[in-house]
Design goal:
This protein is mostly helical and about 100 residues long. Helices cover about 25% and strands about 5% of the residues. It has one domain. The longest helix is centred in the middle third of the chain and has 27 residues.
């Protein structure tokens, strides 16, 4: 399943999209996980996660290209330009509530 239009570049992954923002939800084909039989459980789970990640990434990219809805240029972590821990973009107030007092 691909959800596009939920976050623009510079917005936190925790940001709630505004009213009337254009979004798209598209279901893809079922993913069949093959080649896991006989693997140790930890290795099978790791391989299944990688297969699902690749399938979802390919699906989201294909939907983005077909519909013209761009993916955010920045990533969801500090390496992608977003503040650490999913905080607000620079210049936006933190709406998570009052800050805890700092103790010496």
């Amino acid at each position: 399943m691909a959800f596009l239009g939920t976050r623009r570049a510079g917005e936190s992954v925790h940001h709630v999209p505004g009213l009337r923002r254009r979004m798209l939800v598209e279901f893809g084909e079922p993913v069949v996980l093959e080649g896991l039989a006989g693997l140790p459980r930890k290795e099978a789970v790791s391989r299944a996660q990688e297969l699902l990640r690749e399938a979802l990434s390919d699906h989201v990219q294909a939907v983005s290209e077909r519909t013209g809805i761009p993916l955010p240029a920045d990533g969801p972590g500090p390496e992608g330009g977003e503040p650490d821990a999913g905080g607000p973009p620079p210049g936006e107030p933190d709406e998570s509530g009052p800050e805890a007092p700092v103790r010496p």
